[in-house]
Amino acid sequence: MISKKATGSKVLRLMKNLTQHFKVLGLEPGTSEAEIERSYRKLAKIWHPKNFLDDPRRRHEAEKKIKALNIAHDTLIAYFNRQGQVFQHQSNHSPSQPDPIDLLNREITAKACFEQGGRWLREGNYKEAIGCFSQAIRLNPNYLDAYRARAFSLEQLGYLNRANDDFNKVAALKQKAKRPPSKNSAPTFQAPEQPEAAAKITSTYPEQTLKQPEAISPIHAASQPPITFPLKSLWECAHTFIGHTEVVTSVALSRDGRMLVSGSFDKTVKLWSVNSGQLLSTVTGHSREVNCVAFSPNSKLFASGSGDKTIKVWEVVSGRLICTLGGPFSGHSEEVKTLAFSPDGQILISGAADKTIRLWRLSTGKEICTLKGQAGPIFSLAVSWDGKIFACGGREKHLRIRQLEDGKLIRSLQGESRYVLSVALSQDGTLLAAGGLLHIELWDLIRGEKIATLQGHADTVRSLAFSADGETLVSGGYDGAVKLWDPNTGNRIDTLKGHQGPVSSVAHSLTSPTIVSGSADRTIKLWRRIRPDFSPQAAILPES
Predict the structure, then answer these.
(1) Cβ-count burial of 469 within 10 angstroms (0-12 exposed, 13-18 middle, 19+ buried)?
(2) Do residues 24 and 117 both lie within one domain?
(3) Is residue 400 part of a domain?
(4) What is the pTM (predicted TM-score) of this model?
(5) Whether residues 145 and 240 fall in one domain
(6) Has residue 205 been placed in a domain?
(7) CB atoms < 10 A from the CB of 65, how many?
(8) Could you give the angle at which helices 126-139 and 144-156 cross, rounded to 10 degrees?
(9) Which range of residues forms the domain containing residue 260?
């Protein structure tokens, strides 16, 4: 029988009683899985909040009803998937062993909490999402995906220390999973970790085409078996840069590919030699975490944006602070999230949590203009190579294209994702990549049309970068993976694994087959092609 121990949460109390979930769906206990689906669809259509837009009271009631329907549906379906039929479990366990029914209830409840949190997260209700993820963690202290999702939600609300703790917990759990269990260790309950979603990979030879099903949503992927490919990677981790004491938030390569700059929650900016891996200098001056860094086109300057609402511009050779943009009575009113230089190095563009984009003239340190109209914080910027336009994305559905000269809005594109957390432009200016909560969208800028959706990451896509020739798109995600894509076909070329935490930033060298990635595991990894003379598709080979 389902445990009825009080949890202090209405959601959890409902989940503890399967009979109550059947009642929420208007069904009798023991009803078939197919009938549960039919009843859920019917009631969800009736109680969708959009049906009550002109009545705030009824709309609020509908939101509560939908929430209860979702929880009831997910809990019952999860129970069916595990048990085969509700209320037909025969328990033969020893009194000294954990009750399998109790473990099952905890698993169902933890999963349902996680799924509800995912729905709140996609709707931008971060506080509610954090509550659900915390409930899932209380039920299952080893729920890696719940820690990761809660960290992202905390980060969006500015609770950076708490987010950092969760990111560290993710890294610790991954490391723990690699160690073989002790013979004397007691069995522990752990919900299944979300498998990496599948992506289509096609060989250069038609007979070797590997057809895969559509990508699985990470919120509902727990019951799906992982899909594996006989891949032989052409990339290897050539070096790991260690020096930051907190989450690495941003990385950038100089145009000649010889230097790397990184920013971190530890409030520092570090300059590294790519060839030797040596730390060249560490600059300090920000009073809060560093969220973003960028190199000037001539590689003589680099800039950093911080949670202290300022932007600092530094000289590469000496590490000297050139100027500080913004302050107590000017500039951004909230933390700076993203930076980009114009191709001539004369203008620096910044995006912040105050929903504005600002253009700065570096020769004077003065603000040129402030661009408003965005519906949420700005998370990513990308400038075209000819210096005519730039793209920006943030906590809104719209992907905006603006003129660099005066900031005038040229075009507003709307994809499937609720947020645009990362953007990248190809060198020829024809392709625009946008990363969202679950996938990457490729846009043809000439026609203003979406041409492909790249699915494969099992979590938020946080950073994107094109190679100089535009033949490779690199993505970094909160699933801890760095992925390479062929923009021409939409196929995934390779997956680079090695980080023990979410990947927050990636960059591709403009002069060589080299990629760098920064992570919440406090490290930066340098990836190089093993055989640069091979085509990307040569990676698809049977393992010997």
Answers:
(1) exposed
(2) yes
(3) yes
(4) 0.61
(5) no
(6) no
(7) 18
(8) 160
(9) 233-539
